[in-house]
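$ fold --in a.seq
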Amino acid sequence: MSTSNQIDPRGPRFGAAITSTLLAVTIYLALDAATKDAAFGLFLVITTLFAIGAVFGVINHPYAWLFKSLVRPRLQAPKELEDATPPRFAQGVGLFVALVGVALHLAGIELGLAVAASAAFFAAFLNAAFNYCLGCQIFLGLKRLKVIR
């Protein structure tokens, strides 16, 4: 495995903290009829961020730039690096959940956006608070089952 696909494992956790904060705001806004449009706009931004991570990889994500520029220089070197593939897959899972929320909202399903944002929040919060990447675990499980390489 080449080091070009290796990342500081604290980077995705930093991104998950930002994502979970944005999703918490989205859920709050989505539950008030007066702010549903703002919730949808913010959710579209989050969906775009998931798409960037899934398509271009977590190494090229805006949160990775923030981490590398502002946070990483203030930290000691990581004890070890990790493969960027599972976090990239996790971004794809987040993108799927976000796209379901967008579709539900556009279909006029009252709580669709809030439910999808809550599901994404749960996964992002697990990563941010407990260093447990649910999407990464799905990736590793599928790999063990030989569904993916």
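$ fold --in b.seq
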Amino acid sequence: MIRSVILTLLVLVVPAHAQTIKLDTEDYPPFNYREGNEYKGVGVEQVKLLMQDAGLDYSIEMMPWARALSLAMTQQDHCVFTTVHNAERDPKFKWVEPLLTNRTVLVRKAGSGINPDTIEEAKAYSVGTQRDDYTQAILETHQFPKVDLATNQTLSLKKLLSGRIDLMPVSEDYFAVLQREGHAVEVALVLTEDIYSIACNPSVSDEVIARMQTSLDKLIADGTQAMIFEKFGLGGAGTP
């Protein structure tokens, strides 16, 4: 009888501990990127620390953004980061946030003379971005009529610099990275202010989400998140 009870308890307990949360992301510095065989970035470092603190088994894999987002939407125990939490995505996921807050800006090629004062004026120009990136949803919400979709941000940037598109939406922090790397780009207009998060498939239990959130809250409260921002040159990223 006792042996039977013990076996029953093991059956109930083991699956919860054996669960592995699969965290998918893209190559999008300084948030997430690959350096040799190591994953680094503002999002990656926070995710590693919070998952370890929460005592959860996890894996991180880098892949094209559209695939990472699709896996989190359709596959059990999958999450995607670093993801903008917007109205369109809100009901599709369970959320752990904020990994950071940041503005999204429209950038132009330096010296291009393209200078819209409002979003309505910006609609007169061709705008390029990565397919299934959060910025595509922003452009669609604002009904931009001339949108060029590329497979990745690097290709969109090449189109911007070669004059094939007029404007490109990027996070303000990514814009700072582009400037540090010497790309001839400048801000034309502020589009939105965003919260960047971990978005998890609804199959991820509320208990797991709560443990992840508690650990992220600790990173924020003890100053670790701010130190990670500083490390990657994002000093003001946590400021709303």
